[in-house]
Specification:
465 residues; mainly alpha; two-stranded parallel ribbon; 61% helix; 5% strand; elongated; binds arginine
Length: 465
């Protein structure tokens, strides 16, 4: 087998006579993707070095050299001039090795009282924590554009569906607010996840803690954590924080997928409830008339990747003994991909919602079809004629059947036809058969009445301000 290098690893080569096989190096290295953790790695190292100096474990001069050196490394990485090495496996050893090149012996002291195990756990937590914040920002922006749509159509009537069959008229504002509520729970899931993950693993060292008199509270505070994690074995060996993130992301992606599906349906020629903006549509290479909602379709599908990442990481973690195992290096790529996918989906969804135009006449026409006010008729019979609801339901069902046979809608039946079915029916019934009256009457808490929707929009505007 080929040898990738003549010499053993500079960072841990003391007990090795030769370097790894090229294939070993290929399977072992994570630098191809964990370079994304460079800013977090450097931030963590800076906090660690400052703490070592404060505790008298490092001299102030060494700590100063480390601090400056790490800033140089960061600048090199940001400038794209950093030479990442596969032989150095991962971001932690790449950064440390370059630091040693730059500042010599002081750099060799940085790794005192820590291990790559607590280092990677810290870096990754910092990264995932940032993604929780990014998800919350993306969700809030999407909620804002949904609220604008809701305001625009507070009393715009549309059909509400169950089983994708016309059920009862609802307002567009109410429908938009349904998603605002869902996304609000997504926000709370990301913020719960963030609060739970906000403990600092740094100082757990390899797995057992360290004999150096480190101050874990100091590093935890410096890195914005609420506290250091209490058990060193747990600190280096769990990735439940990433699973919490992925689980919130999966549920959020599920919500986005449902909204996408509605956009696909609503923008079809059969529905025409909305027109998507050109900026978020695509054409067909063969059919000149086509305007396709590709972004909605893609977001509808993205949950496959996001939930795939969650199930992949669960499988990686399942059955691992404490504490660290190299299996856990497989935690990162899918989380990176899931986070990127979610942020892009949130941004694209906000763009689509912001740019879409509602077609009020089409929605209104559809809202009146399919006997959508049958429940209003049944309720009227209960209220005005004192019928038990089951009897009112039956009488209304008979009327629907008659209208269907006649090929008309409920309000098109004559009073005489109605009275044949139930003599208690009067002219006044026609008032409740219109879609506007129907939605206006749904004033129960959480109902679709425009008055209700108006006050819910005001509450959300205030909450998001
Ligand atoms: N690249 C490694 C990872 O992502 C860092 C930790 C390696 N620790 C070790 N003992 N080999 O998990």
């Amino acid at each position: 087998m080929s040898q990738s290098s003549d010499s053993s690893n500079a960072m841990w080569g003391g007990r090795f006579a030769g370097g790894p096989d090229a294939i070993m190096e290929a399977i072992n290295a994570s630098i191809g993707y964990d370079r994304r953790l460079a800013p977090q790695d450097i931030e963590g190292s800076r906090a660690h070095a400052a703490m070592l100096a404060a505790q008298g474990i490092l001299s102030d001069a060494d700590a100063q050299a480390i601090r400056d050196g790490l800033l140089t490394v960061l600048a090199e990485i940001e400038a794209g001039s950093f030479d990442f090495s596969t032989a150095l496996e991962d971001i932690h050893m790449n950064v440390e090795s370059r630091l040693i090149d730059l500042i010599g012996d002081a750099g060799r002291r940085l790794h005192t009282g820590r291990s790559r195990n607590d280092q990677v756990a810290t870096d990754f937590r910092l990264w995932v924590r940032d993604q929780c914040d990014a998800a919350i920002a993306g969700l809030t922006a999407l909620q804002q554009v949904l609220l604008t749509q809701a305001e625009d159509g507070v009393d715009r009537v549309m059909p509400g569906f169950t089983h994708l069959q016309t059920a009862q008229p609802v307002t567009w504002g109410h429908h938009m607010l349904a998603y605002v509520e869902m996304l609000g729970r997504d926000v709370s899931r990301f913020s719960d996840a963030r609060a739970r993950m906000n403990e600092c693993p740094l100082g757990a060292a390899a797995l057992a803690g360290t004999s150096f008199p480190i101050d874990r509270h100091m590093t935890a505070t410096a890195l914005g954590f609420d506290r250091p994690s209490a058990n060193s074995l747990d600190a280096v060996s769990d990735r439940d924080f990433a699973l919490d993130f992925l689980s919130a992301a999966s549920i959020c992606a599920m919500h986005l997928s449902r909204l996408s599906e509605e956009l696909v349906i609503w923008s079809s020629a059969q529905f025409r409830f909305v027109t998507m903006s050109d900026r978020f549509s695509t054409g067909s290479s063969i059919m000149p008339q086509k305007k396709n909602p590709d972004a909605a379709e893609l977001i509808r599908a993205k949950i496959g990747r996001i939930f795939g990442a969650q199930s992949a990481l669960l499988m990686v973690m399942k059955g691992l003994p404490l504490a660290y195992s190299k299996d856990m290096q497989e935690d990162k790529e899918q989380v990176f991909d899931a986070a990127d996918t979610l942020m892009l989906s949130l941004a694209a969804m906000a763009g689509m919602i912001d740019g879409m135009t509602a077609n009020a006449p089409a929605m209104r026409a559809a809202a009146g079809q399919g006997f959508s006010t049958a429940t209003d008729l049944a309720d009227w019979l209960v209220r005005e004629a004192g019928l038990p609801f089951r009897d009112a339901h039956h009488a209304t069902g008979t009327l629907v059947a008659r209208a269907e046979a006649k090929g008309c809608d409920l309000p098109d039946l004559t009073l005489a036809e109605m009275r044949q079915v139930h003599p208690a029916i009067t002219e006044a019934v026609f008032d409740v058969l219109g879609v506007d009256n129907s939605v206006a009457s749904r004033t129960s808490y959480g109902g679709t009445a425009p008055a209700n929707v108006r006050s819910e929009i005001a509450k959300w505007r205030e909450r998001l301000a």
